[in-house]
Amino acid sequence: MKFRWFSPAGITGTVTAWLxxxxxxxxxLTPGFQYTAAxxxxxxxPAPSHGLADDIRPKEFRxxxxxxxxxxxxxxxxxxxxLSVEQAVMLALAHNQDLKTRQLIPVxxxxxxxxxxxxxxPELFAAMGISREAAGGPExxxxxxxxxAGIRKATPLGTTVAAEIAYEQDRSSRAExxxxxxxxxxxxxxxxxGAGPAGGLVAIRQSELETRASVHELTAxxxxxxxxxxxxxxxxxxxxQEHAIVERSLAVSKKQMTDVxxxxxxxxxPRNELAAVQSEVARRxxxxxxxxxxxxxxxxxxxxxxxxxxxxYLETPVHPATDPAIDPAPVADTADxxxxxxxxxxxxAEAQLRLQQHRLETIVTRxxxxxxxxxxxxxxxxxFSRHTSDALKSxxxxxxxxxxxxxxxxxxxxxxxxxxxxAAVATRxxxxxALENLKQTIHLDVRLAVNExxxxxxxxxxxxxxxxxxxxxxxxxxxRFKVGSGTALLVAQAQRDxxxxxxxxxxxxxxYRIALIRLFLAEGSLLSRxxxxxxx
Length: 536
Description:
Blueprint: H1 8-26, H2 38-42, E1 60-63, E2 72-73, E3 80-83, H3 85-95, H4 97-102, H5 105-118, E4 123-133, E5 142-154, E6 159-170, E7 179-190, H6 201-265, H7 273-306, E8 318-320, H8 334-344, H9 346-367, E9 372-385, H10 388-393, E10 400-409, H11 415-482, H12 488-523, H13 526-530, E11 532-535
Parallel strand pairs: 3-8
Antiparallel strand pairs: 1-11, 2-3, 4-5, 5-6, 6-7, 7-9, 9-10
Helix pairs in contact: 3-6, 5-6, 6-7, 6-9, 6-12, 7-12, 8-11, 9-11, 11-12
């Protein structure tokens, strides 16, 4: 081994220059330099983009057979929106802001997947340097130029290979062979920790599973959004129908009050009969205020979900176009619907993928319990000469260098690796239990949805019978009142019961439609039933 000593006098000027440069740079590292004004930082922020970049394509869902666009009719200030339930779902898929943000989640997951895979792309590298030496006197001054270039590649199985060519030109007077050329092939292979799938293949597989899980997560949200949109649509329809029933009931009550006032005026009825009908009119006016408020609340909720591209969209009047009438059919195939839910529910598919991720993680953490043992091998060919051309030619002399060996390292106690493995195993067991719990919840969801659908279906016929009976009661009380054997209070009570039965009848139909939506949501078939597919 050769040691080269330098005279302090020969490097004093260079060291002094470097110290001056470091002192000047250190002036920029004062505490005040660490705090930059926000306005200065904002100058470095890229300008906001009004649209997505060309290479960013979010996952989008669409209707296979989309309906015609919702027609708009001119109103006083804003155009009215006439919507069918299919058009409402189509608008929600196209314009819902929360959905737009979630559509980018699979894009981000896909980017991380490419990052994991990109770690094993071939890497090109190059370096170049120049040095000047002054030691012992002018006769020993010299300049050395060096450069290297090569390619290296890592594999997911813990192997790293590289090829490099290096060249050095030394023009100092002490160098015997001033030009040096070297070609090196090297290989490193992990034998214990980092070997096999744990070396990187698991991370790639986990990133692929994450991308698939994000698509299932988005599918679950789209299914929920479609269900919420349909439910909001039918709740808006129900609120309008209830409001119309209350309006008609108020008109009937006012007409009855007018009749009672006329009869009191001619002396047919005593004045105390007026209190009952006045009280009933007041109740109807209160109910009308509440029903109008319900109509407005459900209109705003529906507009928030579909978010049409209009300024002041919350002011848009909405007119539903789909008839809520439906021919109810009994639901008896609970077992088949449960099996369908196990097959189609996107949240269950996502949970299964998450469990696979946790199982793969235990492979990595179990491998981390092993010591680090690597095998390395370097094979080199070198050429030396005082001239560049001779240095390249000397590579043909078949003089090769071979260097191989093993490197071993291990933490004493290895507590971090043991803790990571313990946490990974516990997380995997937690995911297994969560998956089983989700399956049980799906069975319960389907059975509860079937039970609610059957209840709503039976209520349609029962409420219709009740409404017809209340109509007959009202007619009977009116006839008794006309002939003097009844009172205005009994008529008002009968009309109140009729109002309740009319609202219950229309509510039963809407509740059946909503129960069907929730049943399809519980079994995971809502998107396929509505013809909503992922736009590839």
